[in-house]
Structures are given as C-alpha cells and as structure tokens.
Specification:
alpha/beta, five-stranded mixed beta sheet, 11 strands, about 15% strand, disordered N terminus, binds 5'-O-[(R)-(carboxyoxy)(hydroxy)phosphoryl]adenosine, binds zinc ion
C-alpha cells in the first residue's frame, strides 16, 4: 500500500442482541498477527458495536503467501485508521471504552508488535485495563460470542464450558478440551502441517491463488470426491493427532502425472477428493477424541469448530453429523468471525477481564505461545 493510497477497510457492521445494559463492559479489541489489521468494539452482552477489517490479502497475493516484512509495514500504515474508524462507526470515543485488548501472540512478530504497541499506548495514556490476548484463545472463545449451526442458521446457540474444540487455522490444527477461560487441554494436534496450510499448498500446486482454502472449498463443490484416491494419514491408528504431509505428497504425485493444462473438471475433482480426505481425517480424529477418557470424564455437551478453516462448508457439515451421532450440539462461529478478526480479540478481552486476567506489568509479545501455556 502506498502512503497516499486510501485505506480500504471492510466495515463488518455490528451484531446486536436484544439485551441492552448501560453497565455492560465495553472492550476495544485489536488484531494484527497475520494479514488482517482489524479492530472491534464488543460489549459483555455480546453486542458487536462496530467491526473493521483491513485485509492485506491483495498485497500478498502476487507472492502466493504472506510476506512478513510487507505485512508488518502494512499494519503500521493501517492501524491508526482502523482503530479510529471502529470508534467512529460505533459513535464512541476512547473514553467510553472500559478495557483495551490486543493480540500479543502467537503470530508474525512484526505485525503482533504493531497492534500490541498501539493497544499498550492507548491503555497507558488513558489508564484503562489492558488484556494480552492469545490469538488462538481469540479463535477458541469466539463461539461464545456468536455461534450458529453448520449452514450458518440458528444464531443464538449458547456455548458453555466445557466444550470439545477443533481449532483449525492457517498456522494451527488442534483438538482441545476447553474447560474455561485460560484452561485448555490438548487432546490432539498435527505432527506436520496445519489443515489450512494443506489447503493453501494444494491450491498453490493447482495454480489457484492465495489464500487457497476458500478457492479449494468452492471448486470441491463441483467435483467428484472419489476421483483421486488420497491417503487418510493416521486414520488406521488410535489417538487424536493429525498428519497432512502425506496428503500433500500424494497431491504432488497425482499432479506430476497429469496432462497440462489442467481442465476445470480435473481441478474440481482434485479439490473434491483432497477435501474428502481432510474431512475424513478430521472426523476420524474427533471420533477418537470423544472416546478419550479425559474428554469423557469432562462430558462436554458441545462440539465446536473455530479458526479460518471453520469456514469450510464440508468440514462444518461433517462435524455437525458427528456431533448428532454422539448426542452433542454442534456450534461454529458465523462465517465472518471464523477468519482473523478484531471482534474475537475484543471478546477474549472481555472473557479474560471478567476473570481478572489483565496485564499488571509490561509483557513482551510472543511469536510462539501455545494455548496450554496460558
Ligand atoms: O484463522 P485464520 O484466518 O488465520 C490464522 O490464524 O492462520 O486462518 C486462515 C486459514 C488459511 O489457511 C485459509 O486458506 C483457511 O484458513 N480457510 C479455509 C477456508 N477459508 C479460509 N480453509 C478451508 N476452507 C475454507 N472455506
Ligand atoms: Zn487466526
């Protein structure tokens, strides 16, 4: 982005509940850990008063992935405007805000620093409490702000602790037992790539662009899921861990034998078959997770998916079916709260503030910060 170029932000609008309460806690949340600069004003009655996302995707597209240095620079140029617009759109000033929250990791550290320093400056200059949000906790808790069924209908599902969570994003792929704010038990995780990474890499091999997840998801809808025999790594083994590298290698092998240029039919079938393998792995691993003694003892009533990959229609549908089979309720964030956004950080800010988890002495943002270290 040039300095003189006008910042193009997406106004995500608000989402209000019937509850209205002047005593509600109002949190300004800031997200900048990857390629979105975003801020939102969310209150403790689960109202999103305003939500602005400036997506850098067009800037990274020509490189086929996020370039950390470019991302950090773009965050610096965008952050002030994104925060200002968030306040203006809600008709609020910084004085109306009760708590400031920002992502303090994990993520691309240049970007994390930008949002974190902005939040620290705002909190210090106004004397407001500050919450250091773990980005993964933002994804993990956002279904408690708003959740829907797999097809996006049924807004208003209440997600209570404990719940079983499939957290699938560009950087992470984990099954977690969420016992409470700051209380995460790791049940399974990927041994190599994340699910989002697998989608992005397969899309790149097919020349479909970045980010690959949404494109592969769309192409898969018109393809034959049985056209290519992708492996289902670890699915014949007990446990809840994932591995996607075998699926990626298979993709490369199939493509090396393909006639070029690839036809639309070939690409659609390829995407559908790849996606079917990913879905089968997720269902297989979650099925084992439900039988894990830690999960059974905790007795979660809700199966939740979160993270960017939670936008995937096939994954949502398959998980909903699995939940029903196991007498559990399925819940997912609405589509606009799955990928990185400021509202999930504001909500995690409120949840942490309510249990007294605020910053009491200066902290350093962390590029790596597992949820189990909270
Ligand atoms: O959570 P997120 O926005 O960023 C990280 O924290 O990593 O997730 C981004 C990831 C990307 O890998 C993207 O390809 C994937 O989410 N994604 C999808 C879909 N939409 C986004 N993957 C599969 N199907 C989708 N519809
Ligand atoms: Zn994320």
């Amino acid at each position: 982005m040039n300095n003189d170029e006008k910042l193009i932000c997406m106004d995500m609008g608000g989402m209000r509940n019937a509850t209205h309460d002047d005593n509600a806690v109002l949190c300004l949340g800031i997200e900048s850990s990857c390629d979105e600069t975003s801020a939102a004003l969310v209150d403790s009655n689960r109202n999103i008063l305003s939500h602005v996302i400036y997506s850098q995707i067009p800037e990274h597209q020509k490189y086929g992935g996020v370039v950390p240095e470019l991302a950090a620079r773009a965050h610096i140029l965008a952050i002030d405007d994104v925060i200002k617009q968030t306040l203006v759109k809600a008709g609020k000033t910084i004085d109306d805000v009760d708590v400031v929250a920002a992502t303090a990791g994990p993520g691309l550290i240049g970007g994390v620093l930008v949002g974190w320093m902005a939040a620290t400056g705002l909190a210090q200059s106004t004397g407001k409490p500050l919450v250091a949000v773990n980005h993964l906790e933002g994804h993990a808790l956002v279904p408690r702000l708003h959740a829907t069924r797999a097809d996006g209908t049924g807004a208003g599902i209440d997600v209570e602790f404990p719940y079983l969570l499939m957290l699938a994003s560009g950087g992470h792929c984990q099954i977690l037992l969420v016992r409470g704010v700051g209380q995460y038990e790791l049940i399974g995780q990927t041994l190599d790539d994340s699910a989002g990474e697998a989608y992005d890499k397969v899309a790149k091999m097919l020349g479909l662009g970045y980010p690959g997840g949404p494109i592969v998801d769309k192409r898969a809808q018109d393809g034959n899921p049985r056209a290519f025999d992708f492996p289902r790594p670890l699915c014949d083994k007990p446990g809840c861990d994932f591995s996607f590298s075998g699926i990626k290698t298979a993709a490369r092998t199939f493509l090396s034998r393909a006639e070029t240029p690839l036809t639309d039919e070939y690409i659609n079938d390829f995407c559908a078959s790849f996606q079917a393998a990913v879905v089968d792995c997720i269902v297989n691993r979650l099925n084992n997770a439900m039988r894990d003694s830690r999960v059974r003892d905790a007795g979660p009533k809700t199966l939740v998916v979160a993270g960017g990959v939670a936008k995937n229609s096939a994954i949502r549908a398959a998980m909903e079916k699995l939940a029903k089979k196991n007498n559990m309720v399925f819940a997912a964030p609405p589509m606009n709260l799955c990928t990185d956004n400021g509202a999930m950080i504001a909500w995690a800010g409120i949840e942490n503030y309510r249990v007294g988890r605020v910053v009491v002495e200066p902290i350093a943002p962390r590029p790596r910060w597992p949820l189990t270290e909270l």
